[in-house]
Each structure stands twice: as C-alpha cells, then as structure tokens.
Hints:
By secondary structure, this protein is α/β, with parallel strands linked by helices. The chain has a single domain, classed as Rossmann fold. It is built from 7 helices and 7 strands. The longest helix is centred in the last third of the chain and has 30 residues, at 174-203. The radius of gyration is 16 Å and the shape is globular.
Amino acid sequence: MTNVAVIYYSSTGSTHRLAVAAADAAAAEGAEVRLRRVPETAATGRPGSEEHAASVADIPEATPDDLQWADAILLGTPVHFGLAAPQLMQFINTSSALSIQGKLLNKAVSAFASGSAEHGGQVTAILALHNAICHWGSVIVATGSADPVLYEKNNGNPYGASTVAGNRAGFIHPENTGAIAYQTRRTLHVAAALKAAEGVRAAA
Length: 204
C-alpha cells in the first residue's frame, strides 16, 4: 500500500479541482490517500474566494504529519507572480524539523499549478516548488512528455499538470483532469519503486 498526500492551496477553486482529481486517481490505483488543504491566511478579495472557502471547510487542513506519513506527495498551487502561493510556502516552512532530521528523504514528490493566463507562470510556480523538494532530499517527479494526454491542446508542459483558469472561478479543462491523473500514477509508480528499493536495502 502506498500512502499519498495531496496537499494544496486554492483561492477560488481551480487548484482544488486539480487536487481532487489527483486524489481520485490515487485512490483508483489502490493507494491510501490524504487530501489536505492549506488554509487561507488573509482575505484575498478575489471573486469567488469566500464561496470556495465555505465549500471546502470539511477538508482537513494540512499538517507536517501528512508529509511524514506519505510515500508520495503532490503539491498544488495557484500562480502568484510566477511563484507558488505564499500560503503554500508558509506550510512548507513548517517542514524544517522533518527535513533536517532526514524524514522527507527519498519520497516521491510532484507539483501542479493553476493560473489565470496561458504562459502566466504555471511552469515557474512548479519549478519554484522543485526548489523546496530538493531541500527535502525528496525525488522530483516530472510528467515528462511520454503520454498522449500531455499533447492534448489544453495540456502541454513536461513539469506538472496545469490549468488556465482565466477569470472563471473553479475552472479546469477536462483535458487537465487526464494530465493530473497521469501525473499521479507516475508519482505513485516512482514512490513504489523507491519504497521497494529501501526494503531491499534494509534487508541486505
């Protein structure tokens, strides 16, 4: 059994929908799944943000324990000036104690993003999260370009699934659902391989 934590911040719902699709894909593969949201830290004033916050109030908030528990981690963020959202980065800042103790080593970690415009920073936000993954000593899992779903018109980068939401609160294109499902399966496969290798090493 592979433990999968899907940890995300979402302001108006697009990143949330990608996260739910990732959690569903992990569950379909037989994984144990924790879907966890990073809470809002300040009112954004964005249309739809209050309604979205109310609609996800029953989803548990992310804690460092979710990182330690997981074999595979998927991190989701909206784009904030080409970077990951500060809310998600604040959560990542709470991981220092685990990271320094080596408790995040060799986990399979992947990232996904949503943004308002095409070429609006989705790739740079994902790459910014890769910096944190390197500090954890985890293994970055990129989507690559090896599956047909990644060539669909509304997908199209090798770093992680992303969506162009425009000014449509909670929007993702159906093709993005296929991309995040593929990304999740790939992350699970890498996590399983890492876990198996650790088992062999421990038995040696």
